Amino acid sequence: MPHQVILPASGSTDAVMEIHSTLTAPRLGRALIVGSDVAYRRAALDFLASQGCSGRGVDHTADIPAMIRHGVWGFIVVDIGHSYVGGLEQVRQIRTHSLVPILVTGSTRCSFNRAVAYELGADGYIAKTSDLHELWALARAVARCHEIGIRLSTCGQERGGYRFAGWVCMRGARSLASPSGEDIALTRTSYALLSTFLDAPRRILSRAHLLHSTRTHEDILDRSIDVQILRLREALRRGDPSRQFIRTERNRGYAFDSDVERLL
Fold first, then answer.
1. Phi/psi class of residue 162: alpha, beta or left (left: φ > 0; alpha: ψ in -120 to 50)?
2. CATH 3.40.50.970 given to domain 13-153
3. Residue 26's pLDDT is what?
4. Tally of CA atoms within 13 A in the half-sphere of 27 that contains its CB
5. Burial of 24 by CB count in 10 Å (0-12 exposed, 13-18 middle, 19+ buried)?
6. Which pLDDT value is given to residue 184?
7. Dihedral angle computed from the Cα positions of residues 141, 146, 152 and 154, in that order, rounded to the nearest 10 degrees
8. Where are the domains of the chain?
9. Measured distance CA(141)–CA(12) in Å, rounded
10. What's the pLDDT score for residue 1?
């Protein structure tokens, strides 16, 4: 089903308004247009370019999972067109490998098509006959919902911290201290990445999950998550050269290789 934003209980109105005020013009990143209708792909890409959004168009026969693994996309448009089953299979594949927003276009406004698309992980559905301005507005609306949902989920979670292998990471101060007491400087993205690992120690986290967890903390839409992992490893190595905390799981992602104690 499409992502929903659930507002917090009364008393959090100011936080919601502050979040909303920062998301009125979200940056969408690169667009991937998938479909067999070459004319529609070109028209959509030309229109998006006029709005300052770069993109790429591919046929349904393209290796979409590989494109998801090796590229960074702000949102994806899947045109099911006359290839109904194939188009919906592409939606399923995308959602299996990524949390990227998915918009589906079709030749009609068939409610059954919309229901199936949503069940497979689509975030929005729009008829191909609609003006491309509506597609652009829908993409922006879905992006806002994604970012608001992420930010609301982190509101009020800046207390306490973590302890692991002699290290201490405090959430409120966003500080990291090595076992020797040395303060290790982290960028906002490295801190967000480390927090994601510390919330799920010894669990394998996919590249898509890690990217989704860090993208609202700093603009990294055009950089590889692998580069961010490398920088975090280097920061941790400065505090303890003998220990490798982040383990690479080939073709699966990364895992934080340490027990973690949550500090209240």
1. beta
2. no
3. 54
4. 11
5. exposed
6. 92
7. -150
8. 13-153, 161-263
9. 22
10. 40
Taking only the tens place, the pLDDT of each residue in 79-111 is 987 555 667 888 888 887 777 889 999 876 667
The pair of three-digit structure tokens given for residue 259, joined into one six-digit string: 């027990």
Structure tokens at 153: 């989920």
C-alpha span between 193 and 217 (Å, rounded): 9
Instruction: Quote the pTM value.
Output: 0.52
CATH number given to 161-263:
1.10.10.10
Q: At what angle do helices 84-97 and 111-119 cross, to 10 degrees?
A: 30
Helix (H) or strand (E) holding 127: strand 124-127
Q: Show Cβ contacts of residue 78 under 8 Å, excluding neighbours closer than 6 positions.
A: 34, 35, 87, 90, 91, 94, 102, 103, 104, 105, 122
Which pLDDT tens digit goes with each residue over 167-177? 999 987 889 99
With a cut of 50, list the residues of the chain below it in pLDDT: 1-25, 156, 216-223
